[in-house]
C-alpha cells in the first residue's frame, strides 16, 4: 500500500476543519446518547428505586461479567418519534458476556411509559432477536412492561417485524436450541406476559414480578370483580400453581444471580473458528480519526490514512492496487482478527465493480470475514469513457456480496448513496451489523437533506444498528468478530472468476 500520511502531514486546513466539525457534531450527539443512557424522568426513576428495584441499566451491568464490553443495538431508536420518550424506544438491547458466553440482553425500561411497547420498540426487539438468531446467542429478556401502547397499535400488532414476530422468533430459536431465558421484574401485561411464558426458563421476583393478560384494572372494568395482583398473576401463583415460572427470587440481585447460574448450565460454549493473532496497535493513533472522518459537506480523508489508524500495525496487503482505484481492497488484521477490507474511494467504476467481486469471492473461499468501509457517492455513469460495462460489473459485485457466506460488517464512514450503498454491504444485503460514523450520510441520492441522510436519522429509524465513534471502531469490530467467529463456517457457493 502507499505510505499513509503522518499526523504532521495531515495537520492541514482540511484536517482542522474536519476535526472541528466532528467535535461539534459529537457534542450534539453525546447529548442524545446521554438521554438514552438516563432513561425515564427523574421522578420515574426515583419511583422505580423506591420499590426496591434496580434501574434497567443497573440490571444489565450486574448481569454481565465484570469488564465485559456491551454492544448496544438501537440505542438511538425512536429518537424524537414519540412525545415523552427518550431515544431507545422504551428498551435496551445489546450483546455482552455472561459467564464467559456471549448473550443477547433484551430489557424493558419501565421508567419510560411503564415499559410499554411502541412500533419502534417492536422493531428494536425483533432486530436484536434476528442478530441473536444469526449468531446463535442465548436471549435473556428482562421483563417489566405494560404491553402495547394502544394509540400506536397499528405499528405494534398486525405485521411481520412487530409483536407477533417477537413471539415467533422466540419459539423458533428455542426449537433450534438457542436458549430463551426471562426474568420477570415487575408487572407485565398482555405481550409482556406472553414473552416470558414462551421462554425455556423463567425467573420471577416475589412480591414484584407478575404476569397476566389483563391487569386487575381491566378485570374490574370487564367483570366488576376486585382482585389483587398476586392471586391474578404474582410470583407465588405462577411458581406454585400455574407452573409458568421456574425460579422464584427475593429481589433483583437474587434474580440476576439465578440467571447467571442458568447460563452456566447451557452446555459447552462455542469456540472461535479462526486463529486470532496477537493484537497490535495501529501504525498511527486512532484518536486522529476525528480529523479524518467526513462530516456533512466536509469530505473524509483517503481511506488508506483511515486504515493506518484502524488495522493492526498499519499493515494492509492491497489487492489489485493499480486496477479499479475507486475501490480499495486488501487483507489486514483488526485486534488480531484477519479481515478482508473493501473500502470505497470515490465513484464505483466498472473496473472497481469487477475488482470488488473478485476480492469478495476470494474472501468467501478462504473463510475470511469481510469489512466494508463505505465512502462512495454511487456508481459511475455508463456514458462516461470506459464505463459502458459499469452495470454488468456492478451486478457482479452485488452478486458476490449477497452470496459471500462469511461474516460481513459494514461501517459507513462517509457517503453511501444509490446502488453503491447496497453493493458495499447495505442493510438489504444482510451484513452481521451495520454501523455508521457520526458524520456519515446515506441515501438514495447525494442531494438528500441532512435530516434524512444523516446518521442520527438512520439510527432513530433503526436502518443502522449503532452510531460508533471512529476511535471506538476497532474495539467494536473486535467484539463483533469474536461473536461471529463462534459460528461454523459455510462452504463458498461459487468459485472465483476472472473478468
Low-confidence stretches: none
Main beta sheet, described?
8 strands, mixed
- CATH fold-level assignment of the largest domain: 2-enoyl-CoA Hydratase, Chain A, domain 1
Structural class of the secondary structure composition? alpha/beta
The radius of gyration computed from the alpha-carbon positions, rounded to a whole number of angstroms, is 24 Å
Number of extended strands: 17
**Global mean pLDDT:** 92
Distance between the first and last residues' Cα: 23 Å
CATH level 4 superfamily of the largest domain: 2-enoyl-CoA Hydratase, Chain A, domain 1
Number of domains: 2
User: What's the number of helices?
Assistant: 18
CATH top level class name of the largest domain: Alpha Beta
Question: Keywords, please?
Answer:
499 residues; alpha/beta; 2-enoyl-CoA Hydratase, Chain A, domain 1; seven-stranded mixed β-sheet; 18 helices; elongated
Explain what you see.
GO terms for molecular function: methylcrotonoyl-CoA carboxylase activity. One of its GO terms (biological process) is L-leucine catabolic process. Strands 10, 11, 12, 13, 14, 15, 16 and 17 form an 8-stranded mixed beta sheet that branches. A 7-stranded mixed beta sheet has the order 1-2-3-4-5-7-9, sandwiched between helices. A two-stranded parallel sheet has the order 6-8. The protein has 499 residues and is α/β, with parallel strands linked by helices. Helix 5 (119-135) runs parallel beside helix 6 (163-175) and helix 13 packs parallel to helix 14. The radius of gyration is 24 Å and the shape is elongated. Strand 13, helix 14 (390-403) and strand 14 form a beta-alpha-beta unit. The protein contains 18 helices and 17 strands. The chain has 2 domains: 39-264, 2-enoyl-CoA Hydratase, Chain A, domain 1 (Alpha-Beta Complex), CATH 3.90.226.10; 286-484, 2-enoyl-CoA Hydratase, Chain A, domain 1. 36% of the residues lie in helices and 17% in strands.
Amino acid at each position: 500500500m502507499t505510505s499513509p500520511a503522518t499526523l504532521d502531514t495531515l495537520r492541514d486546513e482540511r484536517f482542522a476543519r474536519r476535526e472541528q466539525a466532528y467535535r461539534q457534531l459529537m457534542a450534539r450527539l453525546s447529548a442524545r446518547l446521554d438521554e438514552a443512557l438516563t432513561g425515564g424522568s427523574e421522578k420515574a426513576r426515583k419511583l422505580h428505586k423506591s420499590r426496591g428495584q434496580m434501574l434497567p441499566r443497573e440490571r444489565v451491568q450486574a448481569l454481565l461479567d465484570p469488564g465485559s464490553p456491551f454492544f448496544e443495538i438501537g440505542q438511538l431508536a425512536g429518537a424524537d418519534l414519540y412525545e415523552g420518550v427518550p431515544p431507545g424506544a422504551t428498551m435496551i438491547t445489546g450483546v455482552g458476556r455472561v459467564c464467559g458466553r456471549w448473550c443477547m440482553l433484551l430489557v424493558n425500561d419501565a421508567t419510560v411509559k411503564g415499559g410499554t411497547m411502541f412500533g419502534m420498540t417492536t422493531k428494536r426487539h425483533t432486530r436484536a432477536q434476528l442478530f441473536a438468531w444469526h449468531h446463535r446467542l442465548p436471549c435473556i429478556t428482562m421483563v417489566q412492561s405494560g404491553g402495547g401502547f394502544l394509540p400506536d397499535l397499528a405499528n405494534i400488532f398486525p405485521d411481520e417485524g412487530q409483536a407477533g414476530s417477537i413471539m415467533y422468533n422466540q419459539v423458533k430459536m428455542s426449537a433450534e436450541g438457542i436458549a430463551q431465558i426471562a426474568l420477570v421484574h415487575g408487572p407485565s401485561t398482555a405481550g409482556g406476559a406472553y414473552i416470558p411464558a414462551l421462554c425455556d426458563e423463567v425467573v420471577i421476583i416475589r412480591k414484584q414480578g407478575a404476569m397476566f393478560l389483563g391487569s386487575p384494572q381491566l378485570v374490574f372494568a370487564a367483570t366488576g370483580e376486585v382482585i389483587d395482583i398476586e392471586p391474578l398473576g404474582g410470583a407465588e401463583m405462577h411458581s406454585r400453581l400455574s407452573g409458568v415460572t421456574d425460579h422464584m427470587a427475593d429481589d433483583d440481585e437474587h434474580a440476576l444471580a439465578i440467571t447467571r447460574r442458568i447460563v452456566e448450565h447451557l452446555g459447552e460454549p462455542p469456540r472461535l473458528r479462526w486463529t486470532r493473532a496477537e493484537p497490535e496497535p495501529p501504525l498511527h493513533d486512532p484518536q486522529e480519526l476525528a480529523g479524518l472522518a467526513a462530516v456533512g459537506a466536509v469530505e473524509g480523508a483517503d481511506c488508506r490514512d483511515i486504515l493506518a489508524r484502524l488495522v493492526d500495525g498499519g499493515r494492509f496487503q492491497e489487492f489489485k492496487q493499480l486496477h479499479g482505484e475507486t475501490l480499495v481492497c486488501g487483507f489486514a488484521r483488526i485486534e488480531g482478527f484477519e479481515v478482508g477490507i473493501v473500502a470505497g474511494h470515490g465513484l464505483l467504476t466498472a473496473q472497481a465493480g469487477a475488482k470488488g467481486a473478485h476480492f469478495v469471492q476470494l474472501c468467501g473461499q478462504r473463510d475470511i470475514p469481510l469489512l466494508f468501509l463505505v465512502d462512495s457517492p454511487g456508481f459511475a455513469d455508463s456514458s462516461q469513457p470506459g464505463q459502458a460495462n459499469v452495470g454488468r460489473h456492478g451486478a457482479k459485485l452485488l452478486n458476490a456480496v449477497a452470496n459471500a457466506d462469511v461474516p460481513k460488517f459494514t461501517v459507513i464512514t462517509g457517503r453511501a448513496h444509490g446502488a453503491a450503498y447496497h453493493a458495499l454491504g447495505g442493510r438489504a444485503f444482510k451484513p452481521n451489523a451495520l454501523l455508521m460514523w457520526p458524520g456519515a450520510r446515506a441515501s438514495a441520492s447525494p442531494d438528500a437533506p441532512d435530516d434524512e441522510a444523516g446518521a442520527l436519522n438512520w439510527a432513530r429509524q433503526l436502518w443502522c444498528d449503532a452510531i460508533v465513534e471512529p476511535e471506538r471502531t476497532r474495539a467494536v469490530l473486535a467484539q463483533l468478530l469474536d461473536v461471529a467467529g463462534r459460528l461454523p463456517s459455510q462452504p463458498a457457493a461459487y468459485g472465483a472468476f476472472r473478468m
